[in-house]
Design brief:
GO molecular function, one term: transaminase activity
Largest sheet: 7 strands, mixed
Oligomer: single chain
Organism: Roseovarius pelagicus
Bound molecules: pyridoxal-5'-phosphate
Strand content: 15-25%
InterPro entries: Aminotrans_3, Aminotrans_3_PPA_site, PyrdxlP-dep_Trfase, PyrdxlP-dep_Trfase_major, PyrdxlP-dep_Trfase_small
Number of domains: 2
Number of strands: 17
CATH superfamily of the largest domain: Type I PLP-dependent aspartate aminotransferase-like (Major domain)
Keywords: Aminotransferase, Pyridoxal phosphate, Transferase
Mean pLDDT: 95
Number of helices: 15
CATH architecture of the largest domain: 3-Layer(aba) Sandwich
Cofactor: pyridoxal 5'-phosphate
CATH class of the largest domain: Alpha Beta
């Protein structure tokens, strides 16, 4: 059944990451409603949302309380200019709440419309910071291969996933540089995790030396690389990379767009799980659980104090988004955080997350599963041709497994040769089993079709 929405979508929308050669035939699956852990499409199929919308619907779908909060704020004051000395109640109160939850002295907030704009803001603030200090050459940023930092031009240039750059020029070949991802699955044979960690830290240090420490301003990294393959770094990696940043007077930007707000059982992962204190922390997604777009770049007091010095021309930070501190989005985020606190969602993730990881390990028994990895409610499953060589399976197999899961009423996300799972944080253990069973069943169907 092709609804009007199906046709209108096919004729008018430019979908991200969509193969346009098949799109005119196949169109899109129209999702019409959503509640709790499930979404329902226009054909009436009820599907278990194994990807939390897109790593973001942390408190689950369709919460009435969220709708009421949003409606109330719209009726009270839906929008007013946030520039200069004007503010609104939800933006201010959310700022205080974020300062309370964030580790250390990450007490200052620059609001944006999502993760990409928050990363762009982070880079501009880093540049502004060093300008304020009179270090005008200290502008280069080091990111990592396979990282995902967003889709605006700077964020896409920080991104290290090759495919996301196809057909686009890159900004700042001279100011954005990439070092290796921390990919334990592909570490050289015979190396221990500690050897590999030493190698990555040495590579980073050498790159800074090569670029010149006076030119390198910051390092940006996700605590666990998400879209790049749910890559969990070796023990001590982040702390040691942070120490290198300290040594060269660089700022450490933690991109916690996916990892913050409970996905790893903590408000923020950097300090709580990996023992380092970023100078700048970027969040979005779970901040408002996707009910309304919102991003935030948090700054430490050390960085803020420099940025807030009235040294620049006119003494102002001339970087403003119309929707900075949007009152409706900030009210939604405050309610989202209140729900997470009231329902002890972080504690729930600490229980159900390890269960999902353990239960998913059974997938390793399948001949095309090379690796199963992750932490808490971030899970990645690598599909390979051969477990020995680890060669990726290719041939659109990820898409076939995705379709096989859909047939079983479960949504997972194929990213190339990887299946990614990132469900709402309210998931039950039974629903974790359902996701693992769907992936397993879909892989077995594929193997049967191939006569394997
Ligand atoms: N950073 C990370 C780690 C992400 O995973 C994403 C989106 O998936 C972004 C930034 C970009 O966020 P947005 O799509 O809200 O602009």
């Amino acid at each position: 059944t092709k609804t009007d929405a199906w046709t209108a979508d096919r004729d008018h929308l430019l979908h991200p990451y969509t193969d346009f050669s098949t799109f005119r035939e196949e169109g899109s699956q129209v999702i019409e409603s959503a509640s709790g852990m499930h979404v329902i499409d226009s054909e009436g199929n009820k599907l278990l949302d194994g990807i939390g919308g897109l790593w973001c619907v942390n408190i689950g779908h369709g919460r009435k309380e969220m709708a009421e909060t949003i409606a109330e704020q719209v009726m009270k004051m839906q929008y007013y200019n946030p520039f200069g000395h004007s503010t609104n109640v939800p933006a201010s109160m959310l700022g205080a709440k974020l300062a309370e939850l964030a580790p250390g002295d990450l007490n200052h907030v620059y609001y944006t419309c999502g993760g990409s704009t928050a990363n762009d803001a982070a880079i501009r603030l880093v540049h502004f910071y060093f300008d304020q200090l009179g270090q005008h050459r200290k502008k280069k940023i080091i990111s990592r291969a396979n990282a995902y930092h967003g889709a605006t031009y700077v964020a896409a240039s920080l991104t290290g996933i090759h495919g996301t750059k196809m057909g686009f020029d890159r900004i700042g070949e001279d100011f954005i540089h990439h070092v290796s991802a921390a990919n334990l699955y592909e570490k050289p044979d015979g190396w221990s995790d500690a050897d590999y960690c030493d190698y990555l830290v040495r590579e980073f240090d050498a790159r800074i030396q090569q670029l010149g420490p006076d030119n390198v301003a910051a390092f940006i990294a996700e605590p666990i690389m998400g879209a790049g393959g749910v890559l969990v770094a070796p023990d001590g990696y982040h702390r040691r990379m942070w120490e290198v940043c300290q040594k060269y007077d660089m700022l450490y930007i933690a991109d916690e767009v996916v990892t913050a707000f409970g996905r790893l059982g903590e408000w923020f992962a950097s300090d709580a799980l990996y023992d380092y204190q970023p100078d700048i922390m970027v969040c979005a997604k779970g901040l408002s659980s996707g009910y309304i777009p919102l991003g935030a770049t948090l700054l430490s007091t050390r960085v803020y104090d420099v940025i807030a010095q009235p040294q620049c021309e006119g003494g102002v930070l001339s970087m403003g988004l119309t929707y900075f501190g949007h009152p409706v989005a900030c009210a939604a985020a405050l309610k989202n955080i209140e729900i997470m606190e009231r329902e002890n969602i972080l504690e729930h993730v600490r229980e159900v997350g390890p269960y999902l990881q353990e239960s998913a390990k059974s997938l390793m028994n399948l001949p095309i599963v090379g690796d199963v990895r992750g932490s808490h409610l971030m899970l990645g499953v690598d599909l390979v041709k051969d477990k020995g060589t680890k060669e990726a399976i290719g041939d659109g197999v990820g898409e076939k497994i995705f379709q096989g899961c859909l047939k079983r009423g479960v949504i997972v996300r194929p990213v190339g040769d990887r299946m990614i799972v990132s469900p709402p944080l309210i998931i039950s253990k039974e629903e974790c089993d359902e996701i693992v069973a769907a992936i397993s069943g879909a892989i077995k169907d594929y193997l049967a079709d191939e006569g394997a």
